[in-house]
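Journal club side-thread
Mid-discussion, someone asked how the predicted structure for our own chain would compare to the paper's figures. Pasting it here so we can look after the session.
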Amino acid sequence: MVFKLIFLKNLNCFVFISFVFCLFQATTLAQGIKHDPLVSVSCRNEPVSQVLEKLARNTGITFSYNPDHIEATRLISLNMDNRRLSAVLAEILPAEKFGLRQNGNQIVIFRKNPALTDLPGSTVQDAQQRGNLPIKPDTVFMTRTMLEKDTVTVTVKDTLVRFDTVYIMKVVTRDVPIKGADIFSNLTRLSDDLTRELKFQAGIHGSWLGIRQSFNSESASFTSNADYKNAYSPRFFSGSAGVDFSMFYSRFEFSTGISCASLNSRLEYSFEKETGGFFRKDTLDAYYTLENEDTTWFYVMDSTYMPVDLEAYTYSAAVSQKFLEIPFTLQYNQPAGRLLIFVRAGLIAGFHLGSKGLILNAADEGVSQFRDLKYKPVVLSYTLGAGLRYPLPGRFIFEAGLKYRGHLESVFDGYPVELRYRAFGIDAGLIWKLY
């Protein structure tokens, strides 16, 4: 009777342990999955990594794994319709070799003791106990011994494997059309560069300018300021081009460089001049009387002067002034999303390179050549501007804006009439980051 009871009790324990073991094997992959949606997948001789990518697109769950551990290039074939994600993963990744841990919408796939998984369970522990195989730091063995009555001893050995490193593979798929956000997704925000560290940039720029010439004479002159204003008109194209070098710290930037400016206009001027002539009637009548003394009066009657020559002069010529310029500007940058909005102000030192065209004479009617006049060696101008900067791929930045500039003094040296240029225009350039 006692033998029968012990046998039944041992049989019940064996059935219970077998049930627990089977249940543990069936639910190993699903234990780490809290969100287990229904999926359908069909593939034929496709790599494991590509199948996991399909599952990620269909479920919105990302998979993190070491490609070497799961043999990501291993080819598999599946045809499963409306099955739980855990069941599909169990087909791809056998439960006796792989485990899952879920964190939000991410599932981490890890291999259970990669160095020893391929060995039989009993052989692994025996080899480790004999010292033939090293025990990795990430592997912890726990042994629990339970003593029951009737001298029945049940020993359960568990193996806990912990990996400190998680490999995350980011896969970019193109199942949907490429949009503008994808094209410019790698562009940096220019505000990230505005740090408290001295940085340097270089670039090129070009400007289109609409100019206005201002003439002024403080002393008496044969030609009035209105004559100069009416005679000269701006041409369609004036501008400058050059290279820049700048350094900035936080939001403030100091720039300099070298450029060539061409300020162009046109002269349209005409006048008439009379030379020679005669009196239309040249009659001299004399009258005299004798009273007390001899007195004589002379009268010139009806005498009109007629010109002999009437000459008309017309001048039409292109006028161009060229300067080599060195700017010194201070700029403030304000972040706006990926862009920078800037305002700047500064001075320009201009060195006269040459000129062509005609200028009205100050002392009499007529014109003279610009190149015959004397110019100041250095002419200062002020400049104001505002615009924006936009990041381009790589280390390049596009810049565009508006600018205004004007001479602080006359370009002539010793001429009775002052000439100053003022201009308003559009400026654009390309900047290369040197950091």
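Post-session note: The CA atoms of residues 60 and 105 lie 7 Å apart.
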